[in-house]
Structures are given as structure tokens and as C-alpha cells.
Write a structure and sequence with these properties.
EC number: 3.6.1.66
Order of helices and strands: EHEHHEHEEEHH
Distance between the termini: 18 Å
InterPro entries: dITP/XTP_pyrophosphatase (IPR020922), ITPase-like_fam (IPR029001), RdgB/HAM1 (IPR002637)
CATH topology: Maf protein
Protein name: dITP/XTP pyrophosphatase
Strand order of the largest sheet: 2-1-3-4-5-6
CATH architecture: Alpha-Beta Complex
Mean pLDDT: 96
Low-confidence stretches: none
Number of strands: 6
GO biological process, one term: nucleotide metabolic process
Structural class: alpha/beta
Largest sheet: 6 strands, mixed
Cofactor: Mg(2+)
Bound molecules: inosine 5'-triphosphate
């Protein structure tokens, strides 16, 4: 089956391709030259559905979208759905990670609990859509460690591990990540 992976984020695209494990004839957004819709919803699931529906309607293909981000407990869940926007138009994640550290310093909090969320949505053109959400808990560490992965990976240590996502082998992260958990749920949802 042909599947449009509806993301403009190369880090996500690599992880989604690995998780799909060659089971689909993958079409990318650059193949389709499709614009990014504004992420106007207020939840990860809402934005994932919005992106998948937009891509499916515009391309006529079944589309898979991911909306994801880092939530920090002491910051009431920020940056959350604004994770990409904290990096600014230059997509500077060194800046975004420093901003997380700075906000924690400003409020004088030692609480380093955080979690990643991935909402995955599949939409059929003029048809139904399904959305699921996977989470992984962890703690934040500063300064950032590791140059693998993408986004906030260098400051996030998943629960039960010592390395940050940025230090882990990509295949190892793909076995335990929020995105992997969402994929498992998506398989269940599509098969049931
Ligand atoms: P698309 O909407 O085109 O998919 P995007 O980067 O704008 O790309 P989001 O709006 O979902 O996607 O933003 C999610 C941000 O959260 C992303 O840019 C990363 O910085 C961060 N993020 C999500 N998953 C992550 C992961 O596995 N590791 C590190 N950071 C992650």
C-alpha cells in the first residue's frame, strides 16, 4: 500500500521509516511538494489529525502524520505542542533546550521530570481517520549530551536508562520511544 508520511521534519521521517520497517510504499512530503498546514489545534491528537487529513485531501493518498513534543512537569507541560515553535524559525534546538533550562532556573525548580508525547494519525482521502498517542517518561539533564536523534533528544533521559536519547543508538531509541509506543497502539487500532 502507498502511504504518504506527512512530515517536514527529517528526524521524524527517519524514525517513522524505521518503524514502518519497509512494509509500505512510502511517499514523502517532498515527493508531493505539499505545504505545511497551520497547527491550530490545542492538543497533540488534534494537530496530528489536522496534518493527516490535510495531507490526505491534498494528495489523494492515505496519510500518516505525527504531532509530538516534550512536556516539562515543572513548566505545567510546556513546551508541549509548542515544542517546534520554541526553536524559532531557524529551528535552533540548542536555543530551545537552553530556554527549557532557563525557564526552570527562573522559577527555581529542581523538578526535572518530563515526558515526550507522539500522536500518530492516519487519514484516508474523503474517508475516516484514526489517532493514537504514545508517551515516554523521563528526566531532563543539562548540559545537553549526545549528537544523535533530533530536537530535544540531548536533554532527555528516559526512565530506567542512563543515556539521553541523543546518546542512544537510533535503533535502541526506536525500541522504547514515545513514537514506538504510538506505533504499537496504531497497529492495534488498525487491526482490531
Ligand atoms: P511536522 O509538523 O512537519 O511533522 P514539526 O517538527 O513541526 O514537523 P511538530 O509540530 O510535531 O513537528 O513538533 C514537534 C517537535 O517536538 C519537534 O520539532 C521536535 O523538536 C520535538 N520532538 C518530537 N519528537 C521528538 C523526539 O523523538 N526527539 C526529540 N525531539 C522531539
Amino acid at each position: 500500500m502507498r502511504l504518504l508520511v506527512a512530515t517536514h521534519n527529517p528526524g521524524k521521517a527517519v524514525e517513522i521509516a524505521a518503524l514502518l520497517d519497509g512494509n509500505y510504499d512510502v511517499v514523502t512530503m517532498s515527493d508531493q511538494n505539499l505545504p505545511e498546514p497551520d497547527e491550530t489545534e490545542t492538543t497533540f491528537c488534534g494537530n496530528a489529525l489536522l496534518k493527516a487529513r490535510h495531507a490526505a485531501e491534498a494528495s489523494g493518498l492515505v496519510a500518516l502524520a505525527d504531532d509530538s513534543g516534550l512536556s516539562v512537569r515543572a513548566l505545567d507541560g510546556a513546551p508541549g505542542i509548542f515544542s517546534a515553535r520554541w526553536a524559532g524559525p531557524e529551528k535552533d534546538f540548542s536555543h530551545a533546550m537552553a530556554k527549557v533550562e532557563q525557564r526552570l532556573e527562573e522559577i527555581g525548580s529542581d523538578d526535572r521530570a518530563a515526558w515526550f508525547t507522539s500522536a500518530l494519525a492516519v487519514a484516508w482521502p474523503q474517508g475516516p481517520a484514526v489517532v493514537v498517542e504514545g508517551l515516554v517518561d523521563g528526566t531532563l539533564t543539562f548540559p545537553p549530551r549526545g549528537d544523535r536523534g533530533f530536537g530535544y533528544d540531548p536533554i532527555f533521559v528516559p526512565q530506567g536508562h542512563d543515556q539521553t536519547f541523543g546518546e542512544m543508538e537510533p535503533a535502541f531509541k526506536d525500541g522504547i520511544s514515545h513514537r514506538a509506543r504510538a506505533f504499537d497502539l496504531l497497529k492495534d487500532a488498525l487491526i482490531d
